[in-house]
């Protein structure tokens, strides 16, 4: 709890002052008769700030004092009204309008609205009653029909962040043309498609939002995230680059129609572009090789699961001046010769994050040579989904990974060899004091541990004090580790691979800007 140091010190002093009850002869504390009702409102407000809004609403039913504190606008600066994503359920528009006026007001900075609550009346109230609203998410993903926006005359004008979850079949132009004049100050734009909902049968694709008109209304964008949109292609990237000269980060992950044909123009126009994320796109090697990589400011690149050739990868990596983040897993063309050429002709000296997961053509010898040279500077390393990379390679490189913060290792495939996890944990604990996130994806049946496992886990827990997340496949070893951390009152650290995944994306400069949902 971020209690002020003065308040905390005073509590510590008072709690240490005990006295003897003359009537009973018992040693008592001055807080012996203190109950939570007697805590100052400021302390209660601080405690309430750690609760979800659902929990705060339940606390409001306890007593009048707690009700007043629960309705303090300082607890309502960021609100989600999407109950399916841990938000509040609002039963009617009238209830929401009352909330906006009474509870949100000038304190509101961030709001998420589902389709049923996106009306011109609600948006008008937000514009009038919440002058400091800067972040907004509008979820149209389940829409079958839009509300009537013909009478909409107002929209929040101070937005810096706008996220729109698109529908597959609803055209957005009727809504968008009403807000174009209000969103000139946008710096971060998310357009979220329906990639995860698409069925295997091919259906007709609709361009449900006019990107060419949208780019004219948003000249100040720094971060653009076009995620899983089935109609996005290179012409849309070209459109944004023609008007957004401040662009620093462009993400088009899971936009399968992107081939890279306008990538050269993109870098010529966007001189500040330092982050390009193109996971699962249809990049063509010839287009990528046409880019003047030497003249770019690029520092972060994700080309995971693309079909780039070995020649293209060598050409690109040896010409990018200063790459700090590379994600290049699931690429058949990525092999030892690429790593060798990068070491000999390129400049990996700025590299802090490397993800080569599912790279079947990279050998453990090739990885060992590269990591022996550059492992000391890495903050994040992901080598998962590679059956030939076992604990032996990790044991040999752990002493080099002295600055590592994120490690992802193992494969879910059943192996013919066993993983001696006790020695692995011991090596991590003794060599990686800055570790924050660790994920072991090995099948539980491949993990071998002994009765002395508790000692290895204890050492890891005590030495890696910055550990926020330890992810394991559900099984007997997971239960052992989870129980160990829970006994030390670190309840949220250990998780399963079914509910949590680690990623080097935490190390991106614009990671917080790229978060949606």
UniProtKB/TrEMBL annotation:
SUPFAM superfamilies: F-box domain, RNI-like. Residues 33-79 form the F-box domain. GO terms for biological process: positive regulation of protein ubiquitination. Gene3D superfamilies: Ribonuclease Inhibitor. SMART domains: FBOX. This is F-box domain-containing protein. It comes from Bemisia tabaci. It comes from the Eukaryota.
């Amino acid at each position: 709890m971020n209690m002020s140091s003065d308040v905390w010190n005073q509590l510590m002093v008072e709690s240490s002052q005990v006295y003897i009850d003359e009537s009973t002869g018992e040693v008592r504390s001055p807080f012996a008769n203190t109950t939570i009702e007697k805590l100052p409102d400021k302390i209660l407000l601080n405690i309430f700030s750690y609760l979800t809004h659902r929990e705060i609403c339940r606390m409001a039913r306890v007593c009048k004092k707690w009700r007043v504190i629960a309705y303090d606008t300082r607890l309502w600066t960021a609100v989600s009204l999407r109950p399916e994503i841990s938000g509040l359920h609002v039963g009617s528009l009238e209830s929401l309008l009352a909330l906006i006026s009474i509870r949100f007001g000038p304190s509101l900075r961030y709001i998420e609205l589902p389709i049923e609550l996106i009306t011109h009346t609600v948006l008008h109230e937000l514009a009038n009653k919440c002058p400091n609203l800067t972040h907004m998410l509008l979820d149209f993903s389940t829409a079958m029909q839009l509300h009537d926006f013909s009478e909409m005359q107002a929209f929040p004008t101070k937005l810096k962040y706008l996220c729109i979850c698109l529908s597959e079949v609803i055209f957005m132009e009727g809504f968008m043309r009403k807000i174009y004049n209000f969103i000139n100050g946008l710096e971060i734009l998310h357009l979220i498609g329906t990639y995860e909902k698409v069925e295997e049968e091919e259906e007709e694709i609709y361009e449900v939002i006019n990107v060419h008109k949208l780019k004219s209304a948003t000249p100040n964008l720094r971060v653009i995230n076009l995620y899983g949109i089935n109609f996005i292609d290179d012409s849309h990237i070209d459109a944004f680059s023609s008007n957004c000269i401040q662009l620093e980060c462009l993400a088009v992950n899971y936009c399968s129609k992107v081939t890279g044909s306008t990538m050269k123009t993109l870098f010529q126009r966007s001189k500040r572009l330092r982050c390009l994320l193109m996971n699962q796109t249809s990049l063509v090697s010839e287009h990528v090789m046409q880019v003047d990589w030497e003249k770019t400011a690029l520092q972060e690149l994700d080309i995971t699961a693309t079909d780039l050739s070995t020649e293209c990868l060598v050409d690109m990596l040896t010409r990018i001046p200063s790459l700090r983040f590379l994600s290049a897993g699931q690429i058949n063309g990525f092999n030892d010769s690429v790593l060798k050429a990068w070491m000999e002709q390129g400049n990996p000296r700025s590299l802090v994050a490397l993800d080569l997961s599912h790279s079947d053509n990279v050998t453990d010898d090739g990885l060992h040579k590269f990591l022996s040279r550059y492992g000391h500077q890495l903050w994040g390393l992901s080598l998962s989904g590679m059956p030939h990379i076992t604990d032996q390679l990790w044991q040999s490189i752990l002493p080099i990974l002295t600055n590592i913060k994120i490690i992802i290792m193992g494969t879910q495939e059943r192996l013919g060899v066993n993983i001696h996890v006790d020695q692995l944990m011991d090596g991590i604990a003794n060599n990686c004091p800055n570790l924050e996130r660790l994920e072991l994806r090995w099948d539980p049946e491949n993990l071998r541990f002994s009765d002395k496992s508790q000692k290895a886990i204890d050492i890891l827990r005590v030495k890696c004090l910055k550990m926020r997340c330890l992810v394991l496949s559900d099984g007997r070893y997971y239960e052992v580790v989870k129980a160990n951390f829970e006994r030390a009152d670190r309840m949220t650290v250990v998780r399963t691979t079914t509910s949590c995944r680690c990623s080097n994306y935490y190390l991106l400069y614009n990671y917080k800007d790229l978060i949606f949902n």
